Amino acid sequence: MLRMGKLTDYSIVLMRHLALDPLAQYNAQILSAAVEVPLPTVRKVLKSLSHAGLLTSERGVQGGYSLSRAASTISVAEIITALEGPIALMECVGNDSHCEQESHCNVQDSWTKINNAVFQALDEVKLSDMLIPQRESTVQFYDSREAAEGKVLHG
Q1: What is the b/e burial string over 117-151, where b = at least 16 CB atoms within 10 angstroms of the residue's CB?
Q2: 60-84: per-residue pLDDT in tens?
Q3: Residue 153, φ and ψ in degrees, nearest 5
Q4: Whole-number Å distance between alpha carbons of 5 and 121
Q5: 66 three-class SS
Q6: Which one of 67, 114, 126, 151 is at 20 to 30 Å from 14 when CA atoms are compared?
């Protein structure tokens, strides 16, 4: 199962909150209370997002964190990469592969295509898209148990 870590989930929640008022600056304590995530976790996530260049921070009494650029230019792929590192579904599609099968693997090209498609899909979703409430999902979810019965779940 492919799954993002909790810190990545929190990073998207924090980025969404910051995007609601892009001109405001928020300190870690205010953000922690607003999104109901423990302060040490918020600080860790903010540090990663700042290091990746997605947030700017100013010190001082009037300081805080804000988006480094418009929410419409920040992709979900960038946020995920800031916390998880490069998006790579399989080891062989990453930059630092140590797979023993790589030299004779006949599915590596296919995994690269799949990885690129997933990255492109995540890159097309912008932080600003996360601000718009979705009335009805157009995403189809796949459940292997339902597939065995010939059904597809819808979101």
Answers
A1: ebbeebeeebbeebeeeeeeeeeeeeeeeeeeeee
A2: 888 899 999 999 999 999 999 999 9
A3: -80, 145
A4: 19
A5: strand
A6: 114
Orientation angle between helical segments 76-84 and 6-20, nearest 10 degrees: 140
Helix (H, G, I), strand (E, B) or coil at 50: helix
Other Cβ atoms within 10 Å of 68 Cβ, number: 15
Give me the count of residues in the chain: 155
Domain spans in the chain, listed from the N-terminal domain onward: 1-85
Locate tokens 């929640």: which residue? 13
Name the pairing type of β-strands 153-154 and 64-67.
unpaired
- Coil, strand or helix at 67: strand
| pLDDT at residue 155 is higher than 60 | no
Contact (CB, 8 A) for 76 and 122:
yes
Right CATH number for 1-85 from 2.40.160.40, 1.10.645.10, 1.10.10.10, 3.10.25.10? 1.10.10.10
